[in-house]
Amino acid sequence: MVKMADVTAYCFKIPDNYPLELAAPLLCAGVTVYFPMVRHQMNQPGKSLGVMGLGGLGHMAVKFGKAFGLNVTVFSTTVSKKDEALTVLGADGFVVSSDEQKMKDLARSLDFIIDTVPGNHPLDPYIQLLKPGGVISMVGVPDEAKFAPVNIVVGMNIIAGSAVAGTKVTTEMLEFCAAHKVYPMIEKIPIQYINEACERMLNKDVKYRFVIDVENSLE
Hints:
Strand order of the largest sheet: 3-2-1-4-6-8
Radius of gyration: 19 Å
Helix content: 25-40%
Largest sheet: 6 strands, parallel
Shape: globular
Number of helices: 10
Order of helices and strands: HHEHEHEHEEHEEHEHEHEH
C-alpha cells in the first residue's frame, strides 16, 4: 500500500485578493529580501534603510521598506535609475555610489542596508554609512566581498547573509503583501517568448521579473 505524503505542508495559499501573476516573484525575490528585513528588525517605522542595487531584489526591498514605514535610499552605479527609484518606486533618496561627496554626507546615517548586488564590490564605503550597531544583509551572491574588519569593529556593525525563508515566513510575507498592496513589477509573457526573454535578461532589459503566462500559452 502506497501512502501519499501531505503536500499541504509544502504549499502556499495565495491570498484571495492578490493577483496570481504578481504572487510568483514573491516566492523568490520577494521572500529573499523580506526574510532578512524582518529577521534583523528592519521593519521599524521611522528607521533608515539603504538598498544597494535596483533590480528584481532591490525593487522589492524598496517596496517592503516603504510599506514598513522606513526612510529608503537607493544606491546605484548609474544615474539612469534615479527616476525609477524616486518616482515609480517611491524611494526617499538616490545616490550614485561613485559620488564620494554624497557618500561622505551620508556617513553614519543608516540603520540598515540590503545589499542585492551580485557582482564583486567593496563593502567599506557602505559600512561607513551605518550607524553604530547597524546591519548590512547580503542577498546578492558575489564571488567575494572585501572589507577592512576595523570598520565593523569600530562601528559595532554586523554583516549578515540570507537566502529564501521557510513556509511560516513565506506565508507571513504573502499575507503582508496582500494587506499592504505590495506588488512586484513584472512583464507577463507567453511561453513561446521564452528565448527572447532569456536574451533580454542577459542584457538586463527587464523591469523587474518575467512571469510566464502558462494558462494562455497552452490554448
